[in-house]
Amino acid sequence: MPKTYSQVGPVARALELLGERWTILVLQELLRGYHRFNDLMDAVQGITSSVLSARLKVLEGHGVISRKFYTEHPPRADYHLTRKGHELGVVAGAMAVWATRHFPDPSMFVHNVCGDPIDVAYFCRHCEHEVRGAEVELIIPE
Amino acid sequence: MPKTYSQVGPVARALELLGERWTILVLQELLRGYHRFNDLMDAVQGITSSVLSARLKVLEGHGVISRKFYTEHPPRADYHLTRKGHELGVVAGAMAVWATRHFPDPSMFVHNVCGDPIDVAYFCRHCEHEVRGAEVELIIPE
Asked: Out of A7, A21, A24, whose CB is closest to B25?
């Protein structure tokens, strides 16, 4: 299990899962469509099999991925993001967009319909527009 | 300096900075308006002064925060997010929104204008609307 922060609040809770080294890189490859252990090993360069195995177990325990056997003899499983897991895509996306903007890196994320750069932003589906950080409020019921 | 991943790509590059334990929690408190070392120590429960000091140095080295002296005798500095740092707010926001949605936690992020839940999403300023992940493309120039 991940080390825990003596912290409350949603960011700290997300970090209990996401804050471990390698976890977000494993998630990124699952989002890209790698599902099998050996393919994930190849995709996440530098990860060891024991670390990958541990991270997959934690992600499965949190319901972020599900494991399915694709052969019975020998038993071989692959890993698929659940809906909860797919919703983490924007976390990796937010990091990636920030990095392409601020590191000396010629790559960029664009909207493939118009070709303009993509942002990651707070968005209100009710108002159907982007929301500034100052208009975001954390509600904690009594 | 942070440990490096033997990885390329913008997510890995962002993680060189953000992937160290405590860094995002420190960022969160800077976003909330804590600027002084002792206030950050109080806000990030459980962090040690040596870890906080190390994280602030790395953030300053990456241009995410700037340090300003507010008294000369004795020398006392405070820390402010740069524009590059403020733009990391949505990374913490994306984690927080995901956590409030998926952990058994009664708190939620709302748009303080209409009261509806907030999302974090890919957004195209040119098209002025939300963009699905499938419409986001990473362009790597030759």
From this structure: A7
